[in-house]
Amino acid sequence: MMKFLFYLVFLMPLSFLGFNFVQVFLFYMLFMFIISSSFVSFPLMLSFSFGVDGFSYFMIILSVWVSSLMFMASWKILYLKNYEKIFSFFVLFLLFCLIMTFSSMNLFIFYVFFEVSLLPLMLIIIGWGYQPERLMAGIYLIFYTLFFSFPMMLGLFILYNKFNSFMFFELLIFDSIIVYFLINLVFFVKIPMYMIHLWLPKAHVEAPVAGSMILAGVTLKLGGYGLIRLLKLFLIMNFKFNTFFIVLSLLGSFFISLICLFQTDVKLLIAYSSVSHMGLVLSGILTLNYSGFTGSLIMMVGHGLCSSGLFCLANIYYERISSRNMYMLKGLLSIFPSFSLFMFLMSVANMSAPPSLNLLGEILLFKSLISFSSLLMFFLMLISFFSAVYCVYLFSYSNHGKFYSGYYCFHVGYIREFLLLFLHLFPLNFIVFMSDLFNVF
Predict the structure, then answer these.
(1) What values do phi and psi take at 191, rounded to 5?
(2) What's the number of domains the chain is made of?
(3) Which of 151, 177, 254, 421 could form a disulfide with 342 if both were Cys (CB 3.0 to 4.6 A apart)?
(4) Burial code of 276-299, b = ≥16 C-beta within 10 A, e = fewer?
């Protein structure tokens, strides 16, 4: 594992040589990582307190993949010479923090890099965002996460006092309600759970396309990853509180789906749909059964690719039309028919239609939730239905109708943009044929 971490460390100074250079080396690192690992449920590539099991393996692949595509999507930063070298350094530093978080087998190192990953993300939002309100979005992001993170540090020291170790495999069952809430609340914020999700739409709207891609694609998954890693520790507490959190998450997913129906900003709609999907993931994890864990992993990977692709599309439209408003983005089918195809495929994948990964994940999540309680079926029907409704709303409003007469100049797609969208869609729709790889729990 250390060879990949040092690879990234030494790539950071080289990021000042330019975008293309870094992107090629990231794809090379991804290839090396894939061929040097195997899909198993126990940690491999052990070195010091780092190792990779099947779950973190997928999360690391997703992180490197989305980070590579961030460079491709952020071509405008390179073109305008908008501090592009510092930008590529921040992206690599963020990727380094994410890989350290996902590969750590030590709870304290996990916590440190969980927090440090906020810093480059906030700097990307504040430095390369769109409106002056991006400063407030950065403050929201930091405040929400840090407010719940300091209690987590207190919880970690209580655990250390009890077990004399921070290693995941040495932590046994610990039934303290205080420590349960101290540690788990930060993961609920990160996923985010309904009622503590307000930072996410703000951050997405103000972030540049790269910030939105990594935020939706990978950073939200840190919450789910932390919950699954610490499930064994709070097994007794989970039996007591999980019903409450599952009902809250599903109710939240339903309400957020309704909120999506009257959004006029495309980015806000995609951001709220992320909250809705991650509510399902959270409730699937909390059912504590095998199909819930597997479904949540598949849904995390599928959602990471799908929402990242949708943010790319929103940015492609924004670069041409300088607006993300639904009333402006009309009749795009007659102007950009090729992008409309990608918009359709992404929207359909977002509403969990076959053959996307989202469908497989949703089927497994529904199975686990209905086996937990058949009363949840009513919520799941509503969430599934309204998810389809807002995805159809997103596609039909932006692509059909009479196009806005204020358009005066636009250019058709670049090969770079088609490749970018294809590299989101291809794994999203074809990994489903290799779904046995997700058998890692």
Answers:
(1) -65, -45
(2) 1
(3) 421
(4) bbbbbbbbbbbbebebbbbbbbbb
pLDDT at 116 over 70: yes
Name the 3-class secondary structure at 408.
coil
Does the structure show a pLDDT above 70 at 366? Answer: yes
pLDDT given for residue 322 in this prediction: 85
Residue 41 has pLDDT above 70, yes or no: no
Q: Which domain holds residue 145?
A: 2-438
Q: How far is CA 405 from CA 53, 105, 330, 335, 398, in A?
A: 54, 57, 10, 12, 14
- Half-sphere exposure (Cβ direction) of 93: Cα atoms closer than 13 Å: 18
Provide the pLDDT confidence category of residue 40 given band limits of 50, 70 and 90.
low
What angle do helix axes 84-103 and 118-128 make, rounded to 10 degrees?
160
Q: Which residues of 109-124 are buried (b: 16+ CB within 10 A; e: fewer)?
A: bbbbbbbebbebbbbb
Of 318, 307, 101, 110, the residue nearest 208 (C-alpha): 318
What phi and psi, each to the nearest 5 degrees, are found at residue 325? -75, 135
For 85-111, the pLDDT digits (tens) are: 999 999 999 999 999 999 999 999 999
Supply the angle between the helices 107-116 and 221-229 in degrees, to the nearest 10: 170
Structure tokens at 106: 């030590």
CA distances 350 to 62, 154, 276, 431, Å, are: 17, 38, 11, 16
Give the residue-averaged pLDDT of 103-121. 95
Q: What is the CA radius of gyration of the chain?
A: 21
Residue 180: per-residue pLDDT: 95
Q: Render 324-367 in DSSP notation, one character per residue.
A: -BTTTS--GGGT-HHHHHHHHHHHHHHTT-TTSHHHHHHHHHHH
Q: First vs last Cα of the chain: how many Å apart?
A: 21
For residue 244, what are its two tokens? Answer: 């409450």
Is 383 in contact with 280 (CB distance < 8 Å)? yes
128-145: pLDDT as tens digits: 998 888 999 999 999 999
**What is the rounded CA–CA span in Å between residue 390 and residue 181?**
34
CB distance 97 to 10 below 8 Å: no
How crowded is residue 79: how many other Cβ atoms within 10 Å of its Cβ? 9
